[in-house]
Amino acid sequence: MLNRRDKRRYIAVWDGYRHYDRKKIVEAISKRGRELFGHVAIENARIRFIEENGGQIKIMSCKLELLSSILSVVGLLHPPIVLLRISGTLKAMRRELDKDSWKFRRALL
Amino acid sequence: MLKRRDLCVHNNDIEKELRTAEILGIDEIGSEYSGTTNKNVIYRLHTRPAYVTTFPYLLVSEEIGQISSPGLDVFAIRDYPRVRSVLRKRVRRGLGLEIFIDDLRRAEGSVVGKWLDYIRQIYKLSKSTSCQLILSSGATSPREMIAARSFDTLLSLCDIDPVVYWKELESWLDMKIGRKCYIDA
Cα(B101)–Cα(B75) distance, rounded to whole angstroms? Predict the structure, then answer.
């Protein structure tokens, strides 16, 4: 049997209200996700907190096959968080956030 | 190219909201008129202006009693079960039926599930009555705005093809705003 690693995607979100810490944000997404898609789907999504980028921007990862479910959950969280970027690798995500940092500062902070 | 629009972002700091919209992949936003105009904003008015305007606008109401008024462009649905029967009987051709994602956000999980079903029903109704479903964020600040990608996944979740939705919204807006007499400044 082939032992392939799951494909994952990294998502960056803006927590403008600074409501969530690394534990709370995964819990909030999982809770809303369970309400909408059920326990099995959300467990399969394997949501992980990766890092914080400048306090209000948080990076998480999830399995690619459940990305669309996670994106809709992100849009339905309260207090709200805003989806900023999606990337296939953490390196590319950091690069993109770095490249657009002046834009984020002007608009978000 | 598809243009994505969030037709209800409440006006706190329109410059900041426009900059946030650009980051989020939203091409145009809808907001209240506060005396000044900006590019890429469609203004939401509650009464028809008495003069020719220099900005594009939509007449918006949440009052079910106004659903048949001739100038109304958008009816915002806040409590679908309450207005469902009146809506089915009195909805006019070409009316925009707007739902705020902010209402879904604030609801409990089971109610969100119901709302998603309501959106499907409203989409069906809008198809059969030549109306336009409008999904807006209802954000009161840039912190509450919704990214284009999130809009797409929410539409797919309601069995609506995002590409079809954005195209239909564009041609509906062309029809609504193009018909009004305003001077493009």
Answer: 15
